[in-house]
């Protein structure tokens, strides 16, 4: 898998609570919104590198796409 750097802008409403980042689907579908949030988690928890990633969801719309995005971003590169 190739690494792709993407220039993005900050989203000031990305503040996770005890249940993660709860937003409407339309918010998550903004360009790079989900990717920015996921990258912030990966950057803040470097001890998780090479660990096991467990992803859950409730099956709502956009859930499958969000999971695929998280897997792609967390996948080790050669």
What report would you give on this structure?
The termini are close together. The chain has 3 helices and no strands. The model has no long low-confidence stretch (mean pLDDT 85). The protein has 78 residues and is mainly alpha-helical.
- Which parts are unreliable, with pLDDT below 50 for 5 consecutive residues or more? none
Distance N to C terminus? 8 Å
Q: How many DSSP H or I helices?
A: 3
Order of helical and strand elements: HHH
Q: Judging from the principal axes of the Cα atoms, what is the shape?
A: globular
Strand count: 0
Question: Hey, roughly how much beta strand do the residues contain?
Answer: under 5%
Radius of gyration: 13 Å
Bin the helical content.
Answer: 25-40%
Structural class: mainly alpha
Offer a few descriptive terms.
single chain; 78 residues; mainly alpha; 36% helix
How is this structure best summarized?
This protein is mostly helical and 78 residues long. It has helices at 25-28, 33-44, 63-74.
Helix and strand arrangement:
Layout: H1 25-28, H2 33-44, H3 63-74
Helix pairs in contact: 2-3
């Amino acid at each position: 898998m190739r690494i792709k750097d993407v220039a993005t802008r900050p989203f000031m409403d990305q503040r996770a609570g005890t249940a993660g980042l709860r937003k409407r689907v339309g918010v998550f579908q903004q360009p790079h919104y989900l990717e920015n949030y996921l990258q912030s988690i990966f950057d803040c928890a470097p001890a998780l590198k090479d660990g096991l990633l467990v992803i859950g969801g409730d099956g709502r719309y956009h859930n499958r796409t969000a999971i695929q995005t998280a897997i792609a971003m967390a996948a080790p590169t050669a």
